[in-house]
Design brief:
Layout: E1 3-6, E2 23-26, E3 29-34, E4 42-45, E5 58-59, E6 62-64, E7 67-69, H1 71-77, H2 82-88
Antiparallel strand pairs: 1-4, 2-3, 2-5, 3-4, 6-7
């Protein structure tokens, strides 16, 4: 297994108890988030993305390379609803809004 680290954790609003099936998109491919989740980071399984490199974008909500994680899917995996996600994400997280 090839493991990567994302600089986001439960201190930024992710659920402390990481649900099975939670994922991110890196280089257009879905990668599973790996438990346990930590205060300021989460690990991801990069086995399917052998060319992943430091600085690559990780998408937790949105689209990249034909893959998409919408708010409803994220809410299901995080065991909450859209309001819980939107209100729980901390203001220091970078947000990119697209049409």
């Amino acid at each position: 297994m090839r493991i990567g680290v994302l600089g986001i954790g439960w201190g930024h609003g992710l659920p402390r108890d990481l649900p099975f099936g939670a994922s991110a998109i890196i280089r257009g491919k879905r990668v599973p988030l790996l438990a346990p989740l930590h205060l300021e980071h989460v690990r991801v399984d990069l086995t399917r993305v052998p060319d992943a490199a430091l600085g690559d974008e990780a998408v937790l909500l949105g689209s990249a390379g034909g893959e998409h994680i919408d708010l409803a899917e994220l809410a299901t995996h995080w065991r909450t609803d859209s309001v819980g996600i939107c209100c729980g994400l901390q203001p220091d997280l970078v947000r990119v809004y697209a049409p």
